[in-house]
Every structure is written in C-alpha cells, then in structure tokens.
Design a protein that fits this description.
Layout (H helix, E strand, L loop, with lengths): L9 E5 L6 E5 L20 E3 L5 E3 L29 E4 L8 E8 L2 E2 L4 E4 L2 E5 L5 E5 L5 E8 L3 E8 L2
Antiparallel strand pairs: 1-2, 3-4, 5-6, 6-7, 6-10, 8-9, 8-11, 11-12
C-alpha cells in the first residue's frame, strides 16, 4: 500500500514531538492528485495563424452556445394602445368580478357609446371610452355597442 521515498506524491506525517518525521507515499499509478491539472503557460498555449503556424501566447476565443426550450402560457386579454375599431374587454371576464369594456373608433376611445352586456344595458362610456361593470354569471359574455362611426359591433368572450 505504501512505498518508499522517491514516489511522485509524498506526504509527511508529523507527531506531536516534531522530532519524528516519516514520509508516506501514495502507491497509485496516477502521478497527479485527483482534481489537480497543470496550467498551460502563455508560451505553451498557442494557436495556429492563417499559414498554419503555431503562434505562442495568442489569445483564443471560446464561443459557448446553450439551447433552451421555453414554454409560456397566458390566460386573459392583452391591453394595448393601438386598437382596431370596436368594443373590447380589457380584463379577464370572471363571473361576479369587475371587468372593463372599451370602445374604439379610428384608433381613439369613443365617448358616449352605449354598452350592452348579455342583452342588458350597462351604461355609456366616458371620455376614456372605458366602462367598468360586474361580469354576470354566464358561460359567455357578449359585448355590444352601437355608435355613429361604428354602427353595431359585437364581441363574445368566455367567462371564467
């Protein structure tokens, strides 16, 4: 298990008296302790130039590419500023909770648009073009409005 002096790896064990030193060596075939590696010097690490010559001390560039797969889901409605013309639900429709309907014509909010939800008139839009209401307990939500610019417009949304 242990060999005599001269082995590549030696450890010295010392007892409390410090007078007694005894070399202990590793008999394994590995000349390097596990986890240790030689570092290349600047002169040893080189790269080939355009002519195929090895150039000592040249910096090498390492490109690492990692691929990942990302999966995402979203449940609801996205609010953005440049809307098409029509009536839109601006919040997810959850039965018994508040939501908002918005009316746009020519990309601008419509003031005074009468909004009907599932056949019930809920009111007119203010200058923001948006009207907050309580979502009825139903499977679907039907928003309808009639304006001079749009005529009658209707959109249907799922109720959660």
């Amino acid at each position: 298990m242990f060999s005599a002096e001269g082995s590549p790896i030696q450890e010295f064990l010392m007892d409390d008296s410090e007078d007694m030193q005894q070399p202990v060596t590793n008999d394994s075939e590995d000349s390097e302790p596990p986890g240790y590696y030689d570092k290349a010097s600047d002169e040893e690490a080189g790269s080939a130039d355009a002519g195929g010559e090895d150039t000592p001390g040249s910096d090498e560039e390492l490109n690492v590419t990692e691929q990942a797969e990302v999966e995402s889901s979203f449940d609801g409605y996205v609010r953005y500023s440049e809307r098409d013309d029509g009536v839109f639900l601006t919040r997810k429709a959850v039965a018994g909770e508040l939501s908002s309907a918005q009316v746009y014509a020519d990309g601008n909010p419509v003031e005074g648009a009468e909004i009907v939800v599932n056949g019930e008139d809920i009111g007119q839009t203010p200058s923001s073009g948006s009207l907050i209401f309580e979502v009825p307990d139903a499977d679907q939500l039907v928003l309808r409005t009639t304006t001079e610019n749009l005529g009658t417009v209707e959109e249907t949304y799922e109720v959660y």
